[in-house]
Amino acid sequence: MDANSKQPIIDELRVTYGDILPEHEYLIDHDWEWFRRRHKINAYVFSQKTSLSRKMKALLTAVATAARMPGSEGGRYVRMHVRHALELGATPQEILEAFECITFPVGGIAFMVGVKCLRDILEEEPHLKANEASESSSAEVRKAPLTRKALEEKQLKVHGYVLPEHEFIMDNDWDWTLLMHDFYDYTNTREGGLPNKMRSLVVVVALCARIPGIEGERYIRNHMGLALRAGAKPDEILEALECAYFPCGGPTLLVGVKCLRAVVQEGEAGRGT
């Protein structure tokens, strides 16, 4: 294969991610036809002719990577996708809020890996701070004490369900429940860089990446329902899942699609269509 025919893709990778990984170079040198076909899929996922913006797709890919590979090795790839999101116009605040959203479904390690990547990139490439937005309001609003009944009613209104696990925690550690509710409520409902729809999509992708088994499907479907109620369309959820394909593999995508089909079918049945 003529090296010149490879150069446009190599140049595109350098522009997109800031550099080309040694893994990319090895694949290009040893199995160009496979890599070329893989790149065509990636280019389609990030094309403009879709419902989600390119910056949000890059952000979702970073989140999926952090959820699936939260260690130092995974951090190399998370960093690559965070930089891509910044180059496409995502603000540091949007990226920070996206990683904050995955604290609940996949834990603090994935969150910290994402924050470290964002901080390191901004320190090394300060020009990427140019699209920094104003910080979200952090003023604390005093609220009346929350009762068990009020919390359950709010859970039903916002999420459409109260899981048995939620009830067990409420019964056995109410103080912890109140602390976590306040933390969750602030993370997911404050006015900030990300709209509620995108926060829901971030959580969906993180859940698919981290717990793609039968038990995880229950939570994935619940959060897909939240995304739909927040204004997401089924094709936007599908595109979000497609972003997770390369960092997380086919099973992650297929489990997500399985849940999406079930949620859409349940919605159609509920409308009598």
Overview features:
273 residues, mainly alpha, 16 helices, globular
User: How would you sum up the major sheet?
Assistant: none
How would you classify the helix and strand content by structural class?
Answer: mainly alpha
**Low-confidence segments, ≥5 residues, pLDDT <50?**
134-141
Strand content: under 5%
Report the mean per-residue pLDDT as an integer: 83
Q: Helicity range of the residues?
A: over 70%
What is the number of E strands? 0
Principal-axis shape equals globular
State the separation between the terminal residues, measured CA to CA: 54 Å
Order of helices and strands: HHHHHHHHHHHHHHHH
Radius of gyration in whole Å, from Cα? 20 Å
Count of helical stretches: 16
How are the elements arranged and paired?
Layout: H1 3-17, H2 22-30, H3 32-45, H4 54-68, H5 72-87, H6 92-101, H7 103-106, H8 108-124, H9 148-159, H10 164-172, H11 174-189, H12 196-210, H13 214-229, H14 234-243, H15 245-248, H16 250-270
Helix pairs in contact: 2-3, 4-5, 4-8, 4-12, 5-8, 6-8, 6-12, 10-11, 12-13, 12-14, 12-16, 13-16, 14-16
Descriptive account of the structure:
- With 273 residues, this protein is mainly α.
- The chain has a domain of 45 residues.
- Helix content is 74%, strand content 0%.
- It contains 16 helices and no strands.
- The longest helix has 21 residues.
- It is globular, with a radius of gyration of 20 Å.
- The termini are far apart.
- About 3% of the residues have low confidence.
